[in-house]
Amino acid sequence: MKKGYKKRYKRRLKRKPIIILLLILIICLCFKFNVFSKKIKLEKIIDDEEVVEVKDVKKTMSLVMVGDALIHDSIYKDAYIGDNNYDFMDMFDYIGEEIKDYDLRYYNQETIIGGKDLGLSNYPLFNSPDEIGSDLVKTGFNMVSLANNHSLDKRERGINYSVNFWKSMDGVITAGSYNSWEDRNEVRVYEKNGIKFAFLSYTTGTNGIPLPEGKEYLVNVYSDDVVKSDIDAVKGEVDVIIVAMHWGSEYTHTPTSEEKRIAQYLSSLGVNLIIGCHPHVIQPVDYVGDTLVIYSLGNFISSQRSLGLAKIIGLMVGLDIVVENDKVTFENINYELLFTYDKNYKDFKIIPFNRLNNDILNNYEQIEEEYMNIVNSEVYYD
């Protein structure tokens, strides 16, 4: 047994150099005749696919914005059709055509829809009929801000009605007012044309009406800390962050120092677009870094003719939001002024300036130039 084992072992030792030489020869022949070329090509294809996947595709969604729906009693009385029902559709005939081609269509519901059981009411504590909301949705609006200085006009009961009303509107995005902490703190990510976006809304005041203790979720009242927390929660989930701000001083065309400070702060947090309301008149549109800031769109519809022309001229802004290579830019920014027409506080109708004539508004072309100068005026920062 042992002798035979040794003989076989010696024969293996003698063959080993020959086997090694044969293996080297085979490997050399394989390289010569590209036996490994399939693997090399496969790796190249995989690399190409990775490049394609990493390479960003230009994505675009369009957005149009108008200002405050400030529903005074003369407006809802004009819309009354009997039996406690209202129809506002004729007031927005022209607007539906103007906004229909946009993906997102925004307005601010300035006067709360708090339920008819609480009684419809005028300034200073507003309550508007359901139909103003449903008719504006029928007109085409699908993005609504609910945080403003009149949100608490009908207290908690009005807020709860409003929130439930808007939840019943299919396909409508809202922000700024909620009926629980769970509802308020839910991270909402929306998507359009492959772009993921967040929509947040805040007001800097509630006309001195305090939020019930422990129920601060009812209205988003602005603070730097609250906003930072909200933005941090969505920043890694979305491509675009849009914030509606109810801020500033009423009836002034110049942004306040606080508006400018908040704009700079929101920009530093990564907000891409700020939509401003509350002054009830138009203010400039400007960039703060890469953030587009619309300081005030003015009134969309109101009955403030007695307070001067500026209160019945609003701004409509349309644009494309573009996401490419992790960068957000804005293209095709266009402006249209809107005029709230009425005849002795009846027959209200929102008329774009491109449909005006001197019979409707005398010297409308000169007025348009004056207000567009406000829109395009430079904002100076401290």
Account of the protein in words:
The protein is of the alpha/beta class and 382 residues long. The protein folds into 2 domains: 17-55; 60-375, Purple Acid Phosphatase, chain A, domain 2 (4-Layer Sandwich). The protein contains 10 helices and 16 strands. It has helices at 2-32, 37-54, 73-78, 93-99, 130-139, 155-167, 181-185, 224-235, 257-269, 364-375; strands spanning 59-69, 80-82, 85-86, 104-108, 143-145, 173-175, 190-192, 195-203, 240-246, 273-277, 285-288, 291-294, 299-301, 313-324, 327-341, 349-352. The strands form 3 sheets. Strands 1, 4, 5, 6, 13, 14, 15 and 16 form an 8-stranded mixed sheet that branches. Strands 7-8-9-10-12-11 form a 6-stranded mixed sheet. Strand 9, helix 9 and strand 10 form a beta-alpha-beta unit. Helix 8 packs parallel to helix 9 (257-269). The protein is globular and about 95 Å long.
Low-confidence stretches: 1-15, 35-54
How does the helix and strand content classify structurally? alpha/beta
Mean pLDDT: 90
CATH-derived architecture of the largest domain: 4-Layer Sandwich
Q: Based on CA inertia axes, which overall geometry fits?
A: globular
Report the CATH superfamily of the largest domain. Answer: Metallo-dependent phosphatases
- What is the string of SSEs from the N terminus onward? HHEHEEHEHEHEHEEHEHEEEEEEEH
- The helicity comes to 25-40%
**Could you tell me the strand content as a percent range?**
15-25%
What is the count of DSSP helices, taking H or I runs of 4+ residues? 10
